[in-house]
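Chapter summary example.
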Amino acid sequence: MRISSSRAHNRAGSSSKRQPAAAATCTSSKPSENQGGRVRQRILQPLGREDILKQSGALDRLLQSLGRHCERSIILSDIAAGTIACRRIGAPLLFGRPWQRIGIADVLHNRLAGRGFEFDVERPIFVTVLHRIMVSGSDRACERWM
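The structure predicted for these 146 residues follows.
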């Protein structure tokens, strides 16, 4: 189903040029139907003139009412209203677990143990890999991204 706008036509079938377009635009809901292999739309409910619907807020109320039946819309409106919270966990938490689970950190610690580094080299390597995953382009800009 879609909500569409159409211009009013005079008796001759051409659109009226004397009225402004906003005043002559009507809105209706139209479901699509397959009739004989062709998609046809029929008017389910005329909603009225678009300019009046916009001024009165009736179109907004209709869309909010329809949105209550859409799961994604419900979640987004609840987040906007503050009813439910959305936390961003970030890339280090998202990719840190697989990094540890696969054992990359352990392999790096074992391979770099005899090198005598004064800091944990695994963390800068993790940040570099994370940068390559999250930001396409040159790895030379990693220090600005961190």
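To summarize the output: The longest strand covers residues 2-7.
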